[in-house]
Write a structure and sequence with these properties.
This protein is α+β, with helices and mostly antiparallel strands. The chain has a domain of about 200 residues: Ribosomal Protein S5, domain 2. It has eleven helices and 13 strands. The strands form three sheets. It has a six-stranded mixed sheet with strand order 5-4-6-3-1-13, with helices on both faces. A four-stranded antiparallel sheet has the order 10-11-9-12. Helix 2 crosses helix 3 and helix 6 crosses helix 8. The structure holds alpha-D-galactopyranose.
Length: about 375
């Protein structure tokens, strides 16, 4: 049995932690690259994630250990030292964000982490780490911070300190996830509602392409800039607050005001994807997985052709899934450029699906695809170890 976080803490720091917590990774069912365009996303929190254990110190030193990077040992830094690069930047950035928001962080801490999300798979290990750090801080200091604020602080940490201009979806799903439900998140207002997922008939399956996505890569920020350019062009003829404030019909009416054809494609993706996401949540609530599945497929095609964030491996995995008997839908999930596909499949076809995908993927790319059926879990929480 895997060693628990409390023991990991004790082995490396001695004594007992004061608090232990868990924050999940997420998979997004549909609504990709909409969360910085004022649109909807439909993520769910996973039963995979990161656990952490922490204790305050009497000085201003932070000592951080991750069981996922054991060779690095304990990283020791002062509360005020600059970011060093590497995984410790995430917790440190969250601590900085709390301080910048006016929370008094006057003592260091010993914190141990251990996660079971595949590294670089696009299942939001960084968002989980951010939300988890926020939760541990809240418990250690007794700060009054809501789960939603933990998500916002995680996003701020990433935007301001890590330098990735990400939206709120990943941190929101990690902080606010609900067991058995996808969350229909309106990124414009942070309003949200549940869309229950019946695991009775369908399995939610993630296939990791093994191609590492690098969210920090400039491509993500480029897409965001292209959307901003498209918005500025449209605003010359129609004042709107965000691209996703447009209906599909309105977009078709105003699209020619976007002068750059690449920016026009990006905007088309955002507007149509937003529309698909609302329809998909409705389909999920009605238990209509067939409709849900076709929307997933349309989403993938749009991410491939209009948003251009897919890659040969993800396309192959999606296409292989689409041609499999028993599949409802499949698409790339997350920021793109590698990472995972998400697949909805009839339960009794799961074993066959796994075999076929593994074999075909290996044959085509020489890579062993990691395939796992996941459960939808609740959001970040304190745990008793
Ligand atoms: C990454 C970002 C999210 C979102 C997705 C794309 O996961 O962190 O905010 O933009 O990409 O949907």
């Amino acid at each position: 049995m895997a060693i628990g976080i409390k023991d990991i803490f004790s082995q490396h720091f001695g004594g007992e932690p004061v608090v232990c917590a868990f924050a999940p990774g997420r998979v997004n069912l549909i609504g990709e690259h909409t969360d910085y365009n004022g649109g909807y996303a439909l993520p769910c929190a996973l039963n995979l994630g990161i656990t952490g254990a922490a204790r305050l110190r009497d000085d201003k030193t932070l000592r951080l250990y991750s069981a996922n990077f054991p060779d690095g040992g304990i990283t020791e830094i002062s509360l005020s030292s600059p970011l060093a690069g590497g995984w410790t930047d995430y917790p440190v950035s969250v601590i900085r964000t709390f301080a910048a928001m006016g929370y008094s962080i006057d003592r260091g801490a010993d914190i141990a982490f251990s996660g079971n999300l595949p590294d670089g798979s696009g299942l939001s290990s960084s968002a989980a780490l951010e939300v988890l750090t926020g939760l541990l801080l809240r418990e250690l200091y007794g700060f009054s911070v809501t789960a939603q604020e933990l998500a916002v602080f995680g996003q701020l940490a990433e935007n301001r300190f890590i330098g990735v201009n990400c939206g709120i979806m990943d941190q929101f799903a990690s902080a606010m996830g609900k067991s058995g439900c996808a969350i229909l998140l309106d990124s414009a207002t942070l309003g949200y509602s549940d869309a229950p997922f019946s695991e009775k008939d369908a399995a939610l399956v993630i296939v990791n392409s093994g191609v590492k996505h690098s969210l920090a890569s400039s491509a993500y920020n480029d897409r965001r800039r292209e959307c901003e350019t498209a918005l500025a062009d449209i605003c010359k003829v129609k004042k709107i607050s965000s691209l996703c404030a447009l209906s599909v019909d309105e977009f078709e009416r105003y699209k020619d005001s976007i002068t750059n054809p690449v920016c026009r494609k990006r905007a088309r993706h955002a507007v149509y994807e937003n529309d698909r996401t609302k329809q998909a949540a409705e389909a999920l609530r009605n238990g209509d997985l067939t409709t849900f599945g076709s929307l997933m497929r349309e989403s993938h095609m749009s991410l491939k052709d209009d948003y251009e964030v897919s890659c040969a491996e993800l396309d192959f995995l999606a296409e292989t899934a689409w041609s499999f008997d028993g599949i409802y839908g499949a698409r790339m999930t997350g920021g793109g450029f590698g990472g995972c596909t998400v697949n909805l499949i009839k339960k009794d076809r799961l074993a066959a699906f796994t075999g076929v995908v593994k074999e075909k993927y290996k044959e085509e790319f020489g890579i062993d695809a990691q395939i796992f059926a996941v459960e939808i879990s609740g959001g970040a929480c304190v745990i008793n170890e």
